[in-house]
Amino acid sequence: MHVHGYLWTGPKQRFDQEGLRRASYASDLPPMETAHWLMKSASSIQGTWQEPKEAAAWLGDRLAEYGPRFASETDRDHARLTTLLNSAAERLDWGGDLSLGYYLERPVFLSLALVTCSPNRAAPDLRCPAG
């Protein structure tokens, strides 16, 4: 098993176009189901890690990078983010996926996902997009 990381930013209005998100392979938008990131092109992958802690570290770097722009003060809380990162590594370790979304300056939205691959627990029939 390994983990792929995905990141998308864009207008929240576009993110809310559920029809495009349901046809997850045909759009650059985050899919409705986290595992369906694996249906997208390998070029969507922001990173791949063999160890869940490495994937969680990437997530931590993205949260540190974008955190100052989070619209909600609660989302910027350091203790909350630390707890989130610790639970992310645990979830990935047992084969779970993680999907997070944050408002930045409105109307911009940030979507982050960590998706287990080969196999994915929620969608074991999906093949690895990286080959």
Descriptive account of the structure:
With 131 residues, this protein is an alpha+beta fold. The protein is built from five helices and four strands; from the N terminus they run E-H-H-E-H-H-H-E-E. The protein has helices at 12-15, 18-22, 52-66, 73-76, 78-93; strands at 2-11, 47-49, 98-103, 108-117. The radius of gyration is 14 Å and the shape is globular.
Spatial arrangement of strands, main beta sheet: 2-1-4-3
End-to-end distance, in Å?
A: 13 Å
The largest sheet is: 4 strands, antiparallel
Number of strand elements: 4
Name the helicity range. 25-40%
Work out the strand percent. Answer: 15-25%
Shape by Cα distribution: globular
Q: What would you call the quaternary organization?
A: single chain
SSE run: EHHEHHHEE
Uncertain stretches: none
Average of pLDDT: 94
Rg: 14 Å
Structural class assignment? alpha+beta
